[in-house]
Amino acid sequence: MKTKFSIFIAAIALLFGVTIASAQGTQAYFKKGGATVFQSPISDIDSIVFYKSVPSGLYLGIIGFNDNLTVKNISQLGSNTKSEFQSFVSNLGMRAATGLYYAVDNAIDMLQTTVLPYDLVNVSIVTFTDGLDNFSIELNYNYNSRDAYRDAISNLIANTRIKNLPIQAYSVGVKGDDVVDIAAFSAGLSALASNPQNVKQVANMSEVNNTFSDIANSLTNVNQSMSLNLKITGGYDDQTKIRFSFDNITDAATSNCYIEGIYRRNGTVRTLENIVYHGLTSNSGATVNGALASGYVTFTFNDVSTINTDNVQQWEYVPSQSLWQRNSEFGQTGDVETTITRKSAVIMLVLDCTTSLGTTDFNSMKTAANNFIDVLANAAGNITIFGGGTENNPYIITTAAELAQLATYVNEGNTNYTNKYYKLNNDIDISSYQTGAGWIPIGTVTYPFRGVFDGNGKKITGLFINNTTLDYVGLFGYIEDGTVKNLAITDININSSFASKIGGVAGYNIDGSISNCYATGLINCTSSSGNSAPWAGGVCGYSSGNVSNCYFTGSVSVYSSNNYSYAGGVMAVGAGSVLNCYSTGTVSATSSTWGSFAGGIVGYWNSYGNGVSNCYSIASVISSSMAGGVVGYCNYSNVSNCAALNPKIGNATTFSRVGYLLSSGTFNNNIAFNNMITPNGGTTWNNKGANQMDGADITAQSINADGTLDGRFISANGWTTANGKLPGLFGNTVDMPAHLK
Question: Do 217 and 270 reside in the same domain of the chain?
Fold first, then answer.
């Protein structure tokens, strides 16, 4: 039964667009096509969660069609995200059959079902084809003839409203050599356009490219408006006719783009009346009040259609001569000021991917489509990230585009994004950033990441980096006094041919904190260049800060032909603290000319700090020089309460089960698998003991019998344990590997 309170809350929901959580589930109120949609009845309300609208901007979706659809869902397009759209287009392939109407049908459906910005001002569909539909009614059985489906799509385009806006539909067609029924081809193009002017039947692919560019330019003008300030001397007589021309002319009488009005003065009041807008538009109306200051008057015109203001001239009409007189003093700094305001638009690009095009024309079509994306992206500029950047109102990251934009802002030193708070709102896939060098890490040595990034228990998948020049590589490149927490990064694929500092979460962490994070995947560095040695770790390459409650699963491999090499399952080189971490997989460091250091948790530790505690590794550790199951090399610090459960240490010339220890460091209460294999293929270790480099023996039977490993890994420190399993983090245990069963 609805209470008065619930009815009141429902009204609020309708007004603002909120999600209401109840004991029975989640009730969402939203509007679709102007109509209010109730997903389910509302009853006892427990809480209300207000979700901000999606960010303003330019949104693009793409459908390639043949006998099936290849779809890129609608997402925000900007200068730093265009590559993912262009990569999608470049990867489209040809197949037989033409599901043209079905594709446009789906484009309309995507527009209806996608959550779009509140300030949407334009909704468009741009369709390209070279032939007749011959497959749509096989994809949608509701129609028995192609003409019926065509007419239905035409009606949908004419009558569908997206946030109360009509669809502006364009059709671009090149008649293929196999088209005989020209009337049917023309009728199809007409059906897919919202008006006859939007039908673009062209002769060849060169004209397709030009037409796409023209449409893109027109669409960018639709979703932006200009505020225009024009400042003139106030000393004109009352009733003087004033004209501002915007085209490059020598006589105002020949102008085809101008604002004209009658100048009025009344005491200190200045106005421009009876205004005529010719060749441009503005919502400022027929009378505009001027702002008088120090003898100059500024007139402001709002929502001016986008025009070129490089050639603005000001004129007064001389009735006695029937001529316009130019004010040669107009045009000084501050006389013309413009502010461009971009509002939101959404565009669906629907592309024919049928074999009738042939390879040459198909590639030309993809080039035209990518040029179309270029024009839109360059006009759209950068992506907007919602939020205030404070602890209570963090910037909210919801898409791969927004995360990439964060990298841009941080790496450019944008002060609005320095020392700020960020929160990942949902799982995101960044695999679209897998062309060229791939992902651009967040933070550089010049502009480090100094904020707080809360992963919110969400996951980022598809991190790909193909590095040849960067010193600091990972999802985050360089952190300084920053925090990254509660984050998963999976399906990592990092390759570097440069001597870099590499980590799945961060390449370099100076006095910052990385906590409650995990990473999975492949990290590889094969270096013959760079000014220093390569360092690679599963979580971070280097840290002088704190790394806690983190793990890595996968492979870390480092090779250098001209320097030392360092690899660690969690961290390559450490100088702060590593607490409650583990690694699985393989860790390898080799060098053909210098030493190499590999450790299941940390490869090399040669600095003061709290060291490594309550960590374990089951990774195979390989090194051409020095290796250890937990730490490859340790000096000036401490390794305590750790477990080296690795199956083997491979290839190393200097090795220990726990790690190699210099006199300035200490080992305390560490254990190691008693049957760990040495580089020589045996199981004999000579420095056993809880405080020694090889640790105290622990058998597979004892490991299976006590999931806490004799109290080293307990729930109070975030571990989940069970007998017969290895300790795990985030509510999970780790399956016992074959060598410990």
Answer: no
Which residues are CB-neighbours of 217 under 8 A, at least 6 positions away? 375
Residues 243 and 282 in one domain: yes
Considering the domain architecture, whether residues 511 and 598 belong to the same structural domain is answered as yes
Range of the domain at 321: 224-340
Cα–Cα dist 570/477, whole Å: 16
DSSP-assigned states of every residue in 574-619: ESSEEES-EEEEEEEEEESSS-EEEESSEEEEES-S-EEES-EE--
How confident is the model over 406-422, as pLDDT tens digits?
Answer: 999 999 999 889 999 99
Question: Which residue in 539, 547, 561, 568 sits closest to 632, CA to CA?
Answer: 568
Distance (Å, rounded) from C-alpha 75 to C-alpha 403? Answer: 13
- List, in order, residues 6 or more apart from 434 with CB less than 8 Å away: 87, 462, 464, 493
What's the CA gap between 671 and 699, in Å, rounded?
10
Q: Note whether residue 736 is domain-resident.
A: no
Total number of domains constituting the chain: 4
Distance (Å) of CA 116 to CA 75, 192, 343: 9, 23, 12
Query: Encoding tokens for residue 303?
Result: 């929502």
Q: Crossing angle for the helix pair 205-222 and 358-380, nearest 10 degrees?
A: 20
Which of helix, strand or coil describes residue 473? strand
Lowest-confidence region among 381-385, 451-455, 645-649, 702-706:
381-385
Residue 386: inside a domain? no
CA-only gyration radius of the chain, Å? 33
Q: Name the 3-class secondary structure at 534.
A: coil
| Chain segment 3-58, per-residue pLDDT in tens | 343 333 334 333 333 333 322 222 333 322 332 232 332 233 333 333 345 677 88
Which two tokens mark 121?
């001002």
CB contact at 8 A, 580 and 548:
yes
Q: What is the pLDDT of residue 436?
A: 81
Does one domain contain both 588 and 670? yes
pLDDT higher at 506 or 223: 506
For 543-570, write each residue's pLDDT tens digit: 999 999 999 999 999 999 889 999 999 9
Tell which residue, 491, 612, 507, has the closest CA to residue 553.
491
Q: Helices H, strands E: what count in the chain?
A: 10, 56
